[in-house]
Design goal:
Rossmann fold; alpha/beta; five-stranded parallel beta sheet; 14 strands
């Protein structure tokens, strides 16, 4: 992959992925085993399957042109259904199959559960979507990287948007009690308290997977909240906003990247209209993002889903590091990832000492006429 010292492409994005060089010295085995882990079935498959597609598009390009340093890249795909108790088995299976790097996992809880297994084996893991602060800011997982900003950036963005952009100050903060939603909600509450702007009139968790959320909607109504800030995923959010619409609540709904997914709109229907959600930054002006989207449409007959750009970027970044380092050893890969920029659909990125991508952030989106659009 050819870059100049500033990390800029010396050729088209396609050529970057195809221009590969000398034989590898540090990569063992006949193939480079590239794992892809996430929810590929169940309610949250719409989060995981786009990452499989992204990895396939990048890897197929590379393999069609001789692989990396003469080695083909082999995909090992495992489904964790976004469940921590399954993700440990997923990680164990990938490690036993000889995986050398992993794209994933997708959900924060599943990622946290799997990370000790990869850490013990010295395997690089890069997620396009797991935003839990624990994964990078704790220092517990030196083998973890991500191409999405952490909750530490998302929580304040949601609150600031509700207060400064929407002009709403009475806030009900709801979460799903999980490793993703609860810390996100706690961060939002802390931001309100630290800034002194707004008032948290309700802070409460719900049970994921429940059939009915009428009780929490009633509490939202009684609290006098002008806006709900929700930390969690789209299955619960779609049920809550549907009940809110039936109860004719005018309370605004602001959520996170776990809700910024077309499946939420399909399930919630008309109740999704006017819902706001944070999501990975808008990359529509990035030529590589446009090219990746077009490639997905050509290959799969549809626009890509959630976290596709981040997954594509992670795949490019990891394969670039393998090519540059001539190795799949963790320390060799980290050196490249932390010192050299690489052009991706989410920008020209490298990573800080914690594993967070430098230069990525969140945009706010709103559902209008059945689609998420960027809030200007």
């Amino acid at each position: 992959m050819k870059y100049n010292l500033s990390g800029k492409l010396l050729s088209t994005a396609a050529c970057v992925l195809l221009a590969l060089s000398a034989p590898a010295l540090g990569v063992a085995g006949d193939t480079i085993k590239f794992g892809v882990a996430g929810p590929h079935s169940g309610d949250l498959a719409s989060y995981g399957l786009p990452s499989v597609n992204a990895a396939k598009l990048v890897i197929d390009k590379v393999n069609a042109n001789g692989g990396i340093n003469g080695k083909m890249v082999e995909m090992l795909v495992e489904d964790d259904v976004c469940k921590p108790e399954i993700s440990t088995n997923t990680a164990t299976k990938l490690v036993s199959d000889g995986v050398e790097v992993v794209l994933g996992h997708i959900c924060s809880g599943a990622t946290i559960a799997a990370m000790p297994i990869y850490k013990e084996s010295g395997i690089l893991v890069m997620s396009p979507s797991a935003t839990s602060d624990e994964l990078t800011l704790s220092g517990d997982y030196p083998n973890f990287f991500r191409t999405i900003a952490p909750n530490a950036a998302q929580s304040p963005a949601m609150i600031d948007f509700a207060i400064n952009k929407l002009g709403l100050s009475k806030i009900a903060i709801i979460h799903d009690k999980g490793d993703y939603g609860k810390p996100l909600a706690e961060g939002a509450k802390k931001h309100v308290e630290q800034t002194g702007k707004g008032e948290v009139v309700l802070f409460e968790g719900i049970t994921p997977g429940a059939m009915d959320y009428s009780a929490i909607v009633q509490k939202i109504k009684q609290s006098g909240a002008e806006v709900v800030v929700f930390g969690g995923y789209h299955p619960e959010a779609s049920k809550i906003v549907t009940i809110m619409k039936k109860k004719r609540l005018k309370t605004k709904f602001v959520s996170d990247d776990g809700v910024k997914d077309d499946t939420f709109i399909k399930v919630a229907g008309d109740a999704a209209e006017g819902v706001y959600a944070a999501g990975p930054q808008d990359n529509s002006s990035n030529p590589m993002a446009a090219e990746a989207k077009a490639a997905h449409k050509a290959a799969f007959g549809s626009d890509p889903g959630a976290f596709f750009e981040g997954a594509y970027a992670a795949t490019v970044a990891m394969l670039n590091a393998i090519e540059k380092a001539d190795s799949t050893k963790l320390e060799d890969l980290k050196k490249v990832l932390q010192t050299e920029k690489v052009a991706t659909p989410v920008g020209d990125i490298n990573f800080d000492k914690n594993g967070d991508a430098i230069g990525v952030g969140f945009s706010m989106y709103v559902v209008e006429n059945g689609s998420y659009i960027v809030v200007k």
